[in-house]
Amino acid sequence: MSKIKSVGEVLGEAKEFEKIRTTVRNYSVVKDFKKIFPEFKKVVKPKKVQSKTLFLRVEDSVWRNELNINKRKIVEKINEHYGQEIINNIRFI
Fold first, then answer.
1. Right CATH number for 7-92 from 1.20.1070, 3.90.25, 3.30.300, 3.40.30?
2. pTM of structure
3. Residue ranges of the domains in the chain?
4. What is the C-alpha separation between 15 and 1, in angstroms, rounded?
5. Of 74, 8, 69, which is closest to residue 40 (Cα–Cα)?
6. 18, containing H or E segment
């Protein structure tokens, strides 16, 4: 007799739902960015994640330069927060 699975289990395991899982993870990064980096909430606005690249709007060129220097650390902290590689690059717009 097969075990009945919950909707969450099916969505979490089935290959057919990988695109949905990716979309949800990408949305979570944008939504949680200010929670992960509260120190940036006044200077950075996360816009979207596309092909593992996080797009950030930074109005101030000084902050843009500072964030660019620390890009690798930001990527690592985001991936560590989720326990998997979600982001591998950041672009500033």
1. 3.30.300
2. 0.80
3. 7-92
4. 23
5. 74
6. helix 18-36
Do residues 41 and 33 lie in contact, with contact meaning Cβ atoms separated by under 8 Å? no
Rounded Cα gap, residues 93 and 9, in angstroms: 37
Tokens read off for 6: 């919950």
Query: How does pLDDT run along the chain (93 residues), one tens digit per residue?
Result: 567 766 566 556 667 778 888 888 999 999 999 999 999 999 999 999 999 999 999 989 999 999 999 999 999 999 999 999 999 999 999
Residue with tokens 């739902």: 17
